[in-house]
Specification:
- The protein is mainly beta.
- It contains 2 helices and 37 strands.
- It has a 5-stranded antiparallel beta sheet with strand order 1-4-37-36-35.
- Pfam families: PQQ_2 (PF13360).
- This is Pyrrolo-quinoline quinone repeat domain-containing protein.
- InterPro entries: PQQ_b-propeller_rpt, PQQ_rpt_dom, Quinoprotein_ADH-like_sf, WD40/YVTN_repeat-like_dom_sf.
Length: 463
């Protein structure tokens, strides 16, 4: 079928099948781009695809094997949803799942963007009801995660009354399977807490990180909660042993190693020196969160805490061979031994020159970092050192993913998707996608790039 015929046929299909919105409704409101992909049977994204968590896997690698090399980019579809999408869309088979700040979860047909189902989970919290912050309203912020064992999509909501709730939805129809109260930090101000980091599913548990609002106001402490994916009762948690702050807020959330141990980054805490308080760190936690197995903190953790220059702005990236990379606000990139993170000043190697926010990605030992003065490639050498290979222009600094020999990232200020050559950072292709949040990161699925926007999801076709 030709390009024009495809667009016409899809519009007819949408008109024939649309219905009104509401909980669990099947309203087909995606807008196919004129001259979109030809033929529904061969449309980009029609084949089964897998991107079930932030950056596709629990090591947070952000690498899509078999993704096509970019020659040209074209608009595939746009799904306008009921609120801003801050987290990455996840993909399971032929369906993409996206969650909004209006506390609504959507299942979208990957090939067409047609709405399969939607589920509204409550009323989000307006900024006026919070002591500080920069998201208005505040609903679902962290990237969802999918559990293949129970075929459940998990999200964490913030709803009126400032309640944080884990919700598990049947991936097929959006039916609510379980809910769990996540406000488990005793004696703290839940209005000062925010769930921003991505969720992770591993070993029959779903992990949910918590930090504070922009501005670090109120009496909060960072913690990681875990609930059973099979509906079993109870929520376990690990809280940073600091008097205040120590948020686990990095957008990439916790990473989970092959052993099931959980790695998470922690922001600045209350202590400015003297006895170490567990903040400004990377933690390795047991799967049930009952024990801190090891940790890393910079030698100058106290001064970093005093200046809000901490490691909490990115999450850990796990590498082959048990290594871990972390970068933060100071401009230091650290290579750690994941089996023993090294304690205070115990890094294996470090490199200056990347103030980093968001999520990293990798292809083998090539690391791609969202640095504030331009995305960078840094390689882990055979001798265990870190070596900078290239730096992108300063406006291209979004959280990257890798596929088809390209690094996919965003100019988040201008709302432009860029594909850079993995080898040398040169620009290959770019496409305007609309307004996005500061930490937006694309999803690679089939031959589509899905971009979360302030109005929904935009799908770009790669040819």
């Amino acid at each position: 079928m030709g390009r024009v015929a495809y667009g016409t046929a899809l519009i007819v299909l949408i008109a024939a099948t649309a219905c009104g919105p509401g909980d669990g409704s099947r309203a087909d409101t995606a807008s196919p781009a004129p001259g979109g992909p030809a033929g529904s049977s061969s449309a980009p994204g029609r084949a089964a695809a897998s991107w079930p968590t932030y950056h596709g896997s629990n090591d947070r690698a952000g690498f899509a094997a078999g993704f096509p090399a970019p020659r040209t980019l074209g608009d595939a579809w746009t799904a306008r949803l009921d609120g801003a999408v801050y987290g990455q869309p996840i993909v399971v088979g032929g369906t993409a799942y996206a969650a909004t700040e209006n506390d609504t979860v959507y299942a979208l047909d990957l090939a067409t963007g047609r709405r399969v189902w939607q589920r509204h989970l409550g009323t989000p919290v307006p900024r006026s009801a919070l002591p500080c912050g920069n998201i208005d309203p505040l609903g679902i912020t962290g990237t969802p995660a999918y559990d293949p064992g129970t075929r459940t999509v998990f999200v964490a909501t913030e709803t009126t009354g400032v309640r944080h709730t884990l919700v598990g939805l049947n991936a097929a129809d959006g039916r609510v399977r379980l809910t769990r109260d996540l406000d488990v930090a005793a004696g703290r101000d839940r209005a000062a807490e925010q769930q921003r980091g991505a969720l992770a599913v591993a070993g029959g548990r779903v992990y949910v990180p918590f930090g504070g609002l922009a501005g670090d106001c109120g009496n909060y402490v960072g913690y990681l909660a875990a609930a059973r994916t099979d509906g079993g009762k109870g929520v376990t948690s690990y809280a940073v042993p600091t008097r205040r702050m120590g948020g686990m807020w990095a957008p990439s959330g916790p990473a989970v190693g092959a052993s099931g141990d959980v790695y998470v980054a922690v922001g600045n805490g209350a202590s400015l020196g003297g006895a170490y308080d567990g903040s400004d760190s990377v933690l390795r936690l047991s799967p049930d969160l009952s024990r801190r197995l090891s940790y890393f903190a910079p030698e100058n953790w106290g001064s970093e805490n005093s200046e809000d220059q901490d490691l909490g702005s990115t999450g850990p990236l796990l590498l082959p061979g048990g290594r871990v990379v972390i970068a933060g606000k100071t401009g230091d990139v650290y290579l750690l031994d994941g089996r023993d993170l090294g304690g205070i000043g115990g890094q294996r190697a470090s490199l200056r020159g990347c103030v980093s926010f968001g999520g990293m990605a990798r292809d083998g030992s090539a690391i791609f970092l969202p640095c504030q003065d331009g995305l960078q490639r840094v390689d882990v050498t055979g001798s265990g050192d870190l070596r900078r290979v290239w730096r992108a222009p300063g406006n291209v600094k979004g959280s990257p993913v890798v596929g088809g020999g390209a690094v996919w990232t965003l100019d988040t200020d201008a709302g432009v998707l860029h594909a850079l050559a993995e080898s040398d950072g040169r620009s290959l292709v770019s496409r305007r996608v609309g307004e996005v949040s500061r930490f937006a990161s694309p999803t690679l699925a089939g031959s589509l790039v899905l971009v979360p926007t302030m109005h929904g999801v935009t799908a770009v076709g790669v040819r």
